[in-house]
Amino acid sequence: MWDAIKSMKKEGLLSLATFASVFSSYVTADRVQEAIMTFEVMGQYGCARDTVALNSLMSAICLDGKTVKAKEFLYVVRDMIRPDADTYAILLEGWEGEGDVISSRQTFTQMVGDIGWDTKNVPAYDSFLTTLLKAPNGMLEVLRFLDAMREMGCYPGLKFFKAALEECVRTADGRSVRLLWEAMMRIDGLRPDTQMYNSVIALHSYLNESDVAKGLMDDMVFNGVFPDSQTYNVLLKFFIKRKKYREASPVFTEMVKNEFVPDHANCSSAVKMYLDHGDTYMAIKVWKCMIESHESDLDETGNLLVLGLRDVNRLPEAVKYAEDMIDRGIKLNSSTLSKLKQSLAKVGKNYIYDELLRKWKTR
């Protein structure tokens, strides 16, 4: 390798990229000291030992999980080569990767004391706050630092907010998620994506805060973000679970209108919910969507629909959907047929049952 470097020097082909490759090769081979020695002799090969070169070396060391050695070397050279915002960002990313909360605090304090607050240093703030999330009571500390940063006009980016919101969802921390969301929405040019909306909507649904969850979905479009299948399914599942059939109906209608498909479990649960509340119109509407979108595991819900229609004296429709299910190869239970037979006999229409039975037997 060094023979190649010497040849490249003669041809005037050496650059910082060459030495960045050497740094990475040594560090990957667990020979950090030789990577450092390479940095020290760069000047002899016509490459400056400046802050950019230092950051290249620091990055190679930290990316390999050896951030302690990078920090130790920085202490040695900092009086000769002044670190910049990128230097500290690299260190903080290293501590983040290693989950070292204590070292991250120390580096952050040193960074602020050395170069001050820099509104452009978003990667450093991202890594520092994300690392703090791993500490005991980390969210409380994160919120305090977030306030301090805001006072200095400095903010983290989406990387941190995504990690923080995921932590709130994991711990069902409704208070913190509201504070984080409000802080994020106040930052110019920073807007949550669909995945972040989905996580927060799911949390508010879990906490039985349906108005907040629905309000978030309504806000998405105003922020240039659009609901996806998961958004609708999360909200629909919540309304079904809480038996809020009136609230579920517009969500289902909007979902289908926007060409998203309710998942199988939501369809099945929705049919049952609407039948339980006597809303056969919506039960049939969901069933039609279900058979168009899902090809298997339709038997249980289909039988439920037929019996539900029969029980509310919608016998002609019960027969209609029973025939359709047989034609589609959906298994109609013998008990369902037996109950249809009883109802048809009462109105003197045994011949309809006989035809239904004939079709059933030939399938």
Automatic annotation (TrEMBL):
| Transmembrane feature ranges | none
Report whether Repeat shows up as a keyword of the record: yes
Q: Which domain of life is it from?
A: Eukaryota
The record's InterPro entries line, in alphabetical order, gives: PPR_rpt (IPR002885), TPR-like_helical_dom_sf (IPR011990)
Q: Which UniProt keywords apply?
A: Repeat
**Alphabetized Pfam families for the sequence:** PPR, PPR_2
Entry's Gene Ontology molecular function annotations: mRNA binding
Keyword Repeat part of the UniProt annotation: yes
Q: Where are the PPR repeats?
A: 228-262
- To which protein family does this belong? Belongs to the PPR family. P subfamily.
Note the NCBIfam families from the entry.
Answer: PPR
Protein's recorded name: Pentatricopeptide repeat-containing protein
Q: Which organism is it from?
A: Actinidia chinensis var. chinensis
